[in-house]
Amino acid sequence: MKLTPPPQHFSTPEKYWDDAREGDTCTSPEYEVTEARINAYAELTGDYTPVHIDEDYAKTTPFGTRVAHGLFGLSIADGLKTRSEYRFLPGMSLGWTWDFLLPIKINDRLHVRFTVTGLRASKSRPGWGIVILPSELVNQHGEVVQKGEHRLMIPRRPA
């Protein structure tokens, strides 16, 4: 079954590696964390840890309420980048370094801010380049709840 994403209207095309410049920045659209989305993530991953799915249990924790899975936050950050005006042609993720700073709660509205801080041609794959994207996942209060760096291999513009 083919999944139909919600309509998106971009004013800019996807970028080749050659189109990126160090210092380029972007802020994504927002994403609302809902109880249904946390529950769906629990079902998808099989992670039914009570702090994520049981409000009575979560009230007894230092968080005082249910919180989203940490990796759900990273998944949100990655997804929001693909919904941003500054996005790349499909490439390959080379890895993440990621820190979990604050809990993500039901009804939080998140966005991701990212910056291009590194660019280099791939040594192992001609026609590809490496992009370094430090990113921050930010809630509606302006607090950075998670942050880290994504390394991507992106196609270069054909000659």
TrEMBL record:
Q: CDD domains in the record, alphabetically? A: R_hydratase_like
Q: Where is this region: Disordered?
A: 1-23
Q: Where is the MaoC-like domain?
A: 27-123
Q: Which InterPro entries match?
A: HotDog_dom_sf, MaoC-like_dom, MCH/BMMD
Query: Gene3D superfamilies per the record?
Result: Hotdog Thioesterase (3.10.129.10)
> What's the protein here called?
Acyl dehydratase
